[in-house]
């Protein structure tokens, strides 16, 4: 495996992306503490993103609104706008592309680039050109931190450390860290173990049981030992990444399609939650068809008063709304049996899983419903074509009444790039691909 002798990767992370986009779009919010919330009109949810001013006052992401207002009484709560963030993401990428080609953008607020000779020779100039392009052509309120290193993993860690250093120096939004191979591993060894991507809370415990408590101790392990601790090849891959090898992540495979939503107070009944879940699952089914997959099961998850409820329903390898929504109705019938007196539901999630590519479909011989499936697939093809043509849900199987705000499934995404779908009021909004395996 090749080990670069110079920096080869740039990792860029936008600072407080969702709140900073709100400030850039609305001059009234600039310089003020801003907290982005799921929807307006209630203090019973959480701040899901906050501006640098709010962070300076002690507000944190995923902090209950009431607690955030106690910490920062002047906090301005702004309902999320998924389509605004998607459009900002696309505009920012266009500006960055005028300076350097983007290699990968795996989420809405970060990206990586492969450096050419000029970028390797003068990374400070390259970073300045990127930030100038954004400030000049989009605005000064959307800022970024940038890390340079031999591979993506190290560049990502460097970026985070550069952001933290800029915050300590009082220049938040101007983070920059350059980790040349000749300087390694000294800057890496100063990083806390919990700040290494791939080392989560459960892995911290597993490493502790193997007497590994610091990044220096992790770095000193052998590759095979890390593979044994992780119990898979990811441990060994991490070893090579931390030691500066040019390692690429394997291509991800689609594992499922899904949506989740925190429910507004008026929608926290079984009836309200089931209606919203129907809209979410319809959106997931549209993406399933658009990406040429069939599903073999539906999963319903609820966050309820006393914990959670989960249920799965087998599908006969389908992708049409009639079959998928029929399975969802069966799952809700189970919910009603389990909670005959009703239950308060705070969050609902739906997922289509056990995927089959359209050209690899395996039909159960005992189902004998191919004729019905073909009929409903033709119906859905016509419906999808109409909705796509008019950029809105003008035809649907059953009534289409999105909750307040018009977003059936639109939400802030921290781990993926949203794509344009359609909402019930004719606006474009985010689609949530759900969890991917690989």
From TrEMBL:
Record field: transmembrane: none
Pfam families: IMS, IMS_C
Catalytic reaction equation(s): DNA(n) + a 2'-deoxyribonucleoside 5'-triphosphate = DNA(n+1) + diphosphate
Highest taxon in the source lineage: Bacteria
InterPro entries on file: DNA/RNA_pol_sf (IPR043502), DNA_pol_Y-fam_little_finger (IPR017961), DNA_polymerase-Y (IPR050116), Rev_trsase/Diguanyl_cyclase (IPR043128), UmuC (IPR001126)
Region called Disordered, residue ranges: 401-438
Enzymatic class: transferase
Subunit description: Monomer.
Name of the protein: DNA-directed DNA polymerase
Organism: Shinella lacus
């Amino acid at each position: 495996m090749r080990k670069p002798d110079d920096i080869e990767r740039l990792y860029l992370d936008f600072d407080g992306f969702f709140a900073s986009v709100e400030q850039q779009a609305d001059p009234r919010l600039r310089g003020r503490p801003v907290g982005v919330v799921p929807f307006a009109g209630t203090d019973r949810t959480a701040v899901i993103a906050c501006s640098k001013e709010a962070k300076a006052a002690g507000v944190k992401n995923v902090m209950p609104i009431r607690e955030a207002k106690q910490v920062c009484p002047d906090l301005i709560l702004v309902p999320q706008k998924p389509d605004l963030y998607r459009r900002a993401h696309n505009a920012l990428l266009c500006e960055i592309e005028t300076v350097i080609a983007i290699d990968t953008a795996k989420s809405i607020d970060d990206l990586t680039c492969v450096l050419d000779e000029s970028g390797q020779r003068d990374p400070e100039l390259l970073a300045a050109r990127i930030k100038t392009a954004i400030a000049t052509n989009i605005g000064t309120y959307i800022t970024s931190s940038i890390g340079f290193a031999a591979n993506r993993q190290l560049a990502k860690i460097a970026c985070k450390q550069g952001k933290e250093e800029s915050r300590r120096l009082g220049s938040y939004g101007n983070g920059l860290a350059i980790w040349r191979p000749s300087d390694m591993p000294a800057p890496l060894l100063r990083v806390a173990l919990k700040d290494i991507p791939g080392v989560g809370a459960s892995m911290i415990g597993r490493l502790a049981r193997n007497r590994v408590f610091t990044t220096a101790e992790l770095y000193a392990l052998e590759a095979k030992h890390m593979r044994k601790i992780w119990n898979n090849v990811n441990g060994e891959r991490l070893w090579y990444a931390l030691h500066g090898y040019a390692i690429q992540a394997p291509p991800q495979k689609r594992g499922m399609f899904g949506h989740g939503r925190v429910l507004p107070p008026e929608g926290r009944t079984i009836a309200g939650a089931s209606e919203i879940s129907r809209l979410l699952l319809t959106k997931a089914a549209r993406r399933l068809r658009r990406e040429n997959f069939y599903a073999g099961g539906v999963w319903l998850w609820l966050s309820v008063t006393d914990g959670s409820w989960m249920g799965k329903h087998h599908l006969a390898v389908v992708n049409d709304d009639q079959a998928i929504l029929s399975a969802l109705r069966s799952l809700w019938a189970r919910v009603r049996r389990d909670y005959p007196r009703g239950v308060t539901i705070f969050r609902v999630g739906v997922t289509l899983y056990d995927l089959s590519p359209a050209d690899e479909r395996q039909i159960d011989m005992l189902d004998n419903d191919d004729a019905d499936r073909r009929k409903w697939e033709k119906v859905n093809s016509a419906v999808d074509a109409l909705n796509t043509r008019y950029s809105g849900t003008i035809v649907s199987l059953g009534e289409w009444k999105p909750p307040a705000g018009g977003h059936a499934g639109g939400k802030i995404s921290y781990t993926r790039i949203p794509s344009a779908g359609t909402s019930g009021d004719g606006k474009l909004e985010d689609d949530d691909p759900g969890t991917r395996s690989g």
